[in-house]
Amino acid sequence: MMSRSHHTEVQLLAAGSLPDRPLLFSCDAADAAPADPCRPARLEAWHRLHSAATGPTGAVAHLFQGAGSGPDLHAQRLREDWQRLCAETDTPLLVYLHCGHQPDTRSPVLQHLLQTLDHHGAVHALRVECRRSLHDAMVLARALTANSSLSLVLRDPTERLSMRPERSRPLRFALLATRDRASAFAARHAPMSGTFAATPIRSL
Questions:
Q1: pLDDT digits (tens, 9 = 90+) for 18-72
Q2: How far apart are the first and last CA of the chain?
Q3: Is the distance from CB of 160 to CB of 109 less than 8 angstroms?
Q4: C-alpha R_g of the chain
Q5: CA–CA separation, 17 vs 166, rounded Å?
Q6: Tell me, what DSSP letter sits at residue 90?
Q7: Closest to 110 measured CA to CA, from 89, 93, 127, 129
Q8: 100-134 in b/e burial notation, b at 16+ Cβ within 10 A?
Q9: pTM of the predicted protein model
Q10: Residue from 123, 127, 126 nearest 114 by CA
């Protein structure tokens, strides 16, 4: 078991939110058919689950504008952000926190994220649905960082499939490092620029 002293060695290198927010798509609209992965045939189980509790209901999806004509599960700009981060810090361990139901069960949201980032390294994904589970996820992220020395926590609050439109929230990130790794990074590099802009280094 990881002792608490290991957790206190982990520091925050950078934190913030990402600029791209998901757009609202109707999965039941007549023009939804070309907007894969929002095809109604794949939402039958979701409709049955929610209709049993609430009666007939329509589905809406919060998705990002894709490179083509249809929506996408993740913002394409994430790849550029990830590549820039890896160029400045080496490739961190990725901790992905997600929530909700996905519109296409054939392609899990983590798989799509890894394809978007073109990431082939270590990754952990956790479903976070409440404040308590977020707390537990961050405890785990600190423990993982104590072993890996550097990790990026990407918190994705996007409810990609829902019964009602809600205000979309941005993705948030936290770049964690062990104390030695943070000191070495501060000595070698100027403050990070771009999306992953540095905040003052402080202990978590």
A1: 888 898 887 765 554 445 556 666 677 677 766 655 555 667 888 888 776 678 8
A2: 19
A3: yes
A4: 19
A5: 19
A6: -
A7: 127
A8: bbbbbeeeebbebbbebbebeeebbbbebeeeeeb
A9: 0.81
A10: 123
